[in-house]
TrEMBL record:
Gene3D superfamilies: Type I PLP-dependent aspartate aminotransferase-like (Major domain) (3.40.640.10). The keyword Nuclease does not apply. This is dTDP-4-amino-4,6-dideoxygalactose transaminase. It comes from Mariprofundus aestuarium. It holds the Pfam family DegT_DnrJ_EryC1. Signal peptide: none annotated. Belongs to the DegT/DnrJ/EryC1 family. The modification N6-(pyridoxal phosphate)lysine is found at residue 187. GO terms for molecular function: pyridoxal phosphate binding; transaminase activity. Keywords: Pyridoxal phosphate. InterPro entries: DegT/StrS_aminotransferase, PyrdxlP-dep_Trfase, PyrdxlP-dep_Trfase_major. The keyword Signal does not apply.
Length: 372
């Protein structure tokens, strides 16, 4: 069955009826405050703290600005150990701050930074570790923190994929010195564009708020070379509306994940990453690995899906370490990153979003099975 007419993409934002958003717009027009931390901005911060189970959160215009500011807030310098298997914003935030990224390999089961390999990458210039909760699956936070404590390093989690993810103790966002979220339109929870930093206390939140507003303290005082990272009232209002629909969206994502697993489980050469489990996972993505013994290559399967109107994504390919601004780093050499290099050649993220129909999931799975 061809799906060319429908064009199914990897992810699409769930958009509630437009009339739900109109009351928010009317309030913005009425109070005439469009940005600079207005009432919707404060309301969204409070409601996100309640929903996520955290004490302090600072909203941003996007997740990249939040990453850049998190590094500035902790005064990170020198070298930072991070993963090559991520979106480029992770390591770009380091370059923006004049920090040298040091890439370390990933775990073959989770594709998160392999805690067992971090120690070997630490040098006298290392000041922090920046792991990524890849696809929303939690990192080995205990092992990473043990290394950081023993070596006196900071930990900043790129939690762009991990909205609402929990472990046995509560929100995964409570780990590390700071955790950074993305609210981009492709994320589980979105504000069109947006992001946030989870802050451990009021003092660091105050510093972060100053840094995202040019370093301004008051009309006469600027204390740091900050940036304009503030979230607008429009984006905050959209986030408040999205929160009302989030539980249903997450439940539907879980159903789609289960349908994929059920339909793909007997296809030789197609491997699904292990399900992190209810509560732990947010089902942000559905990656498969096209193994060498599948009859056609990953790229061939990608093209067949595309020809049938299914726009999967080789996410993450290429590796960050393969891009020109990174590839000359000693830590970026493929022989140092065998697991990440292998995963990047095999990975394919299939469409997953609340409005994806069960019949469409089954058709996608049937098309993959037809190639085996």
């Amino acid at each position: 069955m061809s799906l060319k007419k429908t064009k199914i993409f990897v992810t699409q934002p769930h958009l509630p009826p437009l009339e739900e958003f109109l009351p928010y717009l009317e309030k913005i027009w009425k109070n005439k405050q469009l940005t600079n931390c207005g009432p919707f901005h404060h309301q969204l911060e409070n409601e996100l703290c309640d929903y996520l189970g955290v004490e302090h959160i600072a909203l941003f215009a996007n997740g990249t600005l939040a990453l850049v500011t998190a590094l500035q807030a902790l005064k990170i310098t020198g070298e930072v150990i991070t993963t090559p298997y991520s979106f480029v914003a992770t390591s770009h935030s380091l370059l923006w701050n004049g920090i040298k990224p040091v890439f370390s390999d990933v775990d073959p089961d989770t594709l998160n930074l392999d805690a067992a390999k971090i120690e070997a990458a630490i040098t006298s210039d290392t000041t922090a570790i920046m792991p990524v909760h890849c696809y929303g699956h939690p990192c080995d936070v205990d092992a990473i923190q043990e290394i950081a404590d023993r070596r006196n390093l900071k930990v900043i989690y790129d939690a762009a994929h991990a909205f609402g993810v929990q472990d046995e103790g509560g929100s995964i966002l409570r780990h590390g010195d700071l955790s950074v979220l993305s609210f981009h339109a492709t994320k589980v929870f979105n504000t069109f564009e947006g992001g946030a930093i989870i802050c451990p206390d009021a003092e660091i939140k105050l510093r972060i708020n100053q840094l995202k507003n040019f370093g301004i303290v008051d009309e006469l005082t600027v204390v740091a070379p900050g940036i304009n990272g503030k979230m607008s009232e429009f984006n905050a209002a959209f986030g408040l509306m999205q929160l009302q629909h989030l539980e249903g969206a997450l439940a539907r994502r879980q159903e789609i994940d289960a349908h994929y697993r059920n339909n793909l489980q007997n296809i030789k050469g197609i491997r699904c990453l292990k399900d992190a489990g209810e509560r732990v996972a947010n089902y942000a993505y559905f990656p498969i690995l096209v193994e060498e013994y599948f009859p056609i290559s990953r790229d061939a399967l990608y093209n067949i899906l595309k020809e049938n109107g299914i726009y999967s994504r080789r996410y993450f390919y290429p590796l960050i370490s393969d891009f020109p601004m990174y590839r000359r780093l000693p830590s970026a050499q493929p022989e140092n990153l065998p697991v990440a290099t292998g995963a990047a050649q095999k990975v394919l993220c299939l469409p997953i979003y609340p409005d994806l129909e069960t019949m469409q999931v089954e058709t996608i799975a049937d098309l993959i099975a037809a190639q085996s």
